[in-house]
Amino acid sequence: HVQLVESGGGTVQAGGSLRLSCVFSGYGYNPYCMAWFRQAPGKEREGVATGWSGEETYAETVKGRFTIVRDYANSRIYLQMNNLKPEDTAMYYCGAARAISGTCLEYKNWGPGTQVTVS
């Protein structure tokens, strides 16, 4: 199994920036598949930056504003969020998945999350 812990959330004004962090450990996942998700009240969880390292798929609503950064030496991934909007308000989670031949499989493991609120 995999252990995931997010941090870095908080409250920020529209137009501001935040950098989220997720530390991962354990087994049963591929580090190159570490990804970011979010869930707003009343909505389903959605992928923010998912897929194989270097080939990430970004949600249309965050393209050009969010960037996933990977630091394998420290078993961490980051989510750099710039030009934040009120619509970005959500609980943010990092997720893990197994992979086969460079393709990430289903994401079904997430950390406890970190709250991001944009006013």
Structural account:
This protein has 119 residues and is mostly beta strands. The protein is built from no helices and 13 strands. A hairpin with a 6-residue loop joins strand 5 and strand 6 (57-58). The radius of gyration is 13 Å and the shape is globular. The mean pLDDT is 97.
SSE run: EEEEEEEEEEEEE
What class would the helix/strand composition place it in? Answer: mainly beta
Strands, total number:
13
Overall mean confidence score, pLDDT: 97
Helix content: under 10%
Number of continuous helical runs: 0
**Distance from first to last alpha carbon:** 37 Å
How large, in whole angstroms, is the Cα Rg? Answer: 13 Å
* Assembly state: single chain
Residue fraction in strands: over 45%
Main sheet characteristics: 7 strands, mixed
Overall 3D shape = globular
Q: Runs with pLDDT <50, length 5+?
A: none
List keywords for this structure.
119 residues; mainly beta; 4-stranded antiparallel sheet; 0% helix
Question: Helices, strands, pairings?
Answer:
Blueprint: E1 2-7, E2 10-12, E3 18-26, E4 35-39, E5 46-50, E6 57-58, E7 66-71, E8 76-81, E9 90-96, E10 99-100, E11 103-104, E12 109-110, E13 114-118
Parallel strand pairs: 2-13
Antiparallel strand pairs: 1-3, 3-8, 4-5, 4-9, 5-6, 7-8, 9-12, 9-13, 10-11
